[in-house]
Amino acid sequence: MSTAGPLLTVQGISKAFGGVKALSGVSFEVPQGAVYGLIGPNGAGKTTLFNVVTGFIQPDSGGCMLDGTRLTGEPVHRVVQLGVARTFQNIRLFHQMSALENVMVGMHTRSRAGALGAVLRTRRVRDEEARLEAEAHALLERVSVAAWADHPAGSLPYGLQRRLEIARALASSPRLVALDEPAAGMNASETASLSELIVKLRDDGTTVLLIEHDVRLVMGLCDRVAVLDRGELIAEGTPAQVQRDPAVIEAYLGAPAEDARPASHAEGDTALGLPGVA
Amino acid sequence: MRRWLFIQALRLPLVPSAAGASASPLARGMVLALAVAALLLAPFLVDALLGRAWVRVLDLVMLYTMLALGLNIVVGFAGLLDLGYIAFFAVGAYLYALCASPHFGLYLPFWLLLPAAAVLAGVFGVLLGAPTLKLRGDYLAIVTLGFGEIIRIFLNNLNAPINLTNGPQGITMVRPIEVAGVSMAQVHSIGPLSIPALYNYYYLFLALTLLVVFVSIRLQHSRVGRAWVAIREDELAASASGVNTRNLKLLAFALGASFGGIAGSLYASFQGFVSPESFGLMESIMVLCMVVLGGMGHVRGVVLGAVLLVALPEALRYIGPMQRSLFGQVMVEPSDLRLLLFGIALVLVMRWRPAGLWPSPVRRREFAAAPAAGGSASTGPEPRP
């Protein structure tokens, strides 16, 4: 794995749902080892782009490459196998399976045992199961959910469910993990520990693609940020660059100065955390 | 009472962990030995206490247990509602009947036909599964129901222009199973013991049922079983976890169907006769009821469901003569009563034990989760946002 060069290349993605252009010609590159933020107002096309990258929907044109391997056109489970794992905006755990089993399902692509192996339970299969279980435990430790290993996933507190979902995504040993609004619905302390976790992931060499509404989190955490508005990429760069970009300010705050409205109408401004902007 | 004992006997070997969790290895071994003895002696006991007819019921219990466990893979493990399951039973039964009867004059050996029935039914399972991969719930149920009927109607009508299945008359004089030159349909004697045909079949069916139970349990606690449960709970999340949902659903269809095919070929040789009317929609629903009533996805529960739903209708037959002796006439036909009680039982179970009579811990949680979803999460150490 080279540290230089992009890990994920998104090239000219367009996608329309009926008459609605959800994405038009979006291109950007996610560098190896970065935390890459994807922001934009509601309906900007962030989740659609996420679904395209992870193979859940196919774009009308354009495509994604992971370190030179084309992802677009592959079924979802192949995309996972190629190294892109994701979480969901509304948590989608296997609620009645234990936390440990959730993570073990996440290791599906990294294990081999088939039906015959399961029935015969050969030495290889038993060794594999033991290895999966040990690794799953280690992953739960890593996201600090280990104490809940044997609890049904649905019974975990909300913040831990988010972390468990991240552990399940990590279980496939992805090169890129895509987190869809991981801090949604979290309180301040949960958000803080989540951002610690994301930093830890990056330090361990996993590239992170992050959709997030909590702009403070994005600005504090991300190495680079792409801003989408109405399906188009309007800005891309370091958080500092993006914050100063007039197009971004307009997308978030509405029309420029001459018909300036009261600050209370411009909902984005406090969230952006940019005193100079408003 | 004896039947209850028999049920106990049936479940014991399936629950070594439950029996042994709190007991010493010695106690566990004794329980296991008792269970084996009970299973081996069951036909003798049943014959002596209830009569020969009940040994036949015992045989049918084994057959339906195999069927129900096969359907349990599809419905219970992978969560794919299949209303045409009996079609695979039919495929196995007809394969055996056609290849071991005077109809074509073929008499292929049993050890060849049984695996062939499993494979052919498995192929049919994939044929049904492939076009329905994108369907779930009600829609899948409708398509599978149609598939089941198609198979039955084909069997009913494939007597012209070429007589393949002999149509509604069915195929008669199916040759009984022979194992190593010993025919199942004859009375054998070992020393002073004489072992009638129904006993022979019992032991054969028992062996295969135990095999099916074993395979089911092994599958359940494996990588494949976990992936099935994942698909059942959230197919999208399963694929996002790297599970090839297409292949695993097809695998569930194929494996479930092959269990049905094996049971079917055993049934053909046991009855000596097959006809399309044995494979109607009601049969599919009966097998589904065994799975649902017993406890979807729970091997022991499904076995219990099969035992109850095969044995109870037989027990109800006594109601007719009983009425005559009590009231001098039959006031309610036992067959009507059967459906009435069956309906009531289903309503009661769905009302009071929606996860089945003997649910797996996971399923119990699934059904309990709906009303308690809000409360359960707040029991954690961290406050909910």
Write structural notes for this entry.
The complex is a heterodimer of chains A (278) and B (385). Chain A is an alpha/beta fold. Chain A folds into two domains: 1-83 and 174-245, Rossmann fold, CATH 3.40.50; 94-171, no CATH class. Helix content of chain A is 37%, strand content 22%. Chain A is globular and about 65 Å long. Chain B is mainly α and 385 residues long. Helix content of chain B is 69%, strand content 4%. Chain B has helices at 2-11, 16-20, 25-50, 52-77, 86-99, 110-129, 137-157, 197-220, 223-233, 235-240, 245-271, 281-294, 299-316, 319-327, 334-352, 361-377; strands spanning 100-101, 106-107, 178-179, 182-183, 188-190, 193-195. Chain B is globular, with a radius of gyration of 22 Å. The N and C termini of chain B lie far apart (54 Å). Chains A and B meet through helix 2, helix 3, helix 4, helix 5 and helix 6 of A and helix 8, helix 9, helix 10, helix 11 and helix 16 of B.
Provide tags for this entry.
heterodimer; A: 278 residues; alpha/beta; Rossmann fold; six-stranded mixed sheet; four-stranded antiparallel sheet; 10 strands; 37% helix; disordered C terminus; B: 385 residues; mainly alpha; two-stranded antiparallel ribbon; 16 helices; 6 strands; 4% strand; disordered N terminus
Q: Give the H and E element order of chain B.
A: HHHHHEEHHEEEEHHHHHHHHH
* Strand percentage of chain B: under 5%
**Lateral strand order in the biggest sheet of chain A:** 6-7-8-3-9-10
Distance between the termini of chain B: 54 Å
Assembly state (oligomeric): heterodimer
Task: Return Rg of chain A in Å.
Answer: 20 Å
Largest interface: A-B, 52 and 43 residues
Mean pLDDT of chain B: 85
How many domain units of chain A? 2
**Percent helix among the residues of chain B?**
55-70%
> How is the largest sheet of chain B built, in terms of strand order?
1-2
Class per helix and strand makeup of chain A? alpha/beta
Secondary structure tally, helices of chain B: 16
CATH class of the largest domain in chain A: Alpha Beta
Overall CATH architecture of the largest domain in chain A: 3-Layer(aba) Sandwich
Give the N-to-C terminal Cα separation of chain A: 43 Å
What structural category do the secondary elements of chain B indicate?
mainly alpha
User: What low-confidence regions of chain B span 5 or more consecutive residues with pLDDT below 50?
Assistant: 1-21, 371-385
Shape of chain B: globular
